[in-house]
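Chapter review: from sequence to fold.
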Amino acid sequence: MSAAKPAVVRFYLDADVLGLAHVVAALRNDATYPGDPGAIIKRRERPACPITDPATKDDVWIPEVASRGWLIITRDSRIQQHPAEIAAVKSNNARMVALSGDEARGTWQQLEVLMRHWRAIEVLATRPGPFVYTAKRGSLKSVDLG
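The token string follows.
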């Protein structure tokens, strides 16, 4: 059997969706999360995540993740009301999709929202930042960053 080739990580699932992160990262070699020890998925080796602690503050992990070009997937029902997080996204040219609404509370519901919009999220992963989108079961909308 040949050695695994390096994976290219494209998605970072934040600690706010850690249950969802474990599900997605078990299936995809291009997705990581805080504390991810790395894995071999489909003969591609994903390295350990540089964000080792799920309690890492936004002002630390957002610049790190953005510098790597990863699209952030998080859960935040009121992202527009968090000016520090929006400022971190803007100043680091980050790209973020925030699962929001009551239908994104548990892991299963988050997976449903994520899969509903997966193809559009993959397209967003190819676009330059900064941007934030909110994803609900029935919508994927851009947030005005001001």
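Two observations follow directly from the output. The chain has one domain: 11-24+54-142. The chain has a mean pLDDT of 93.
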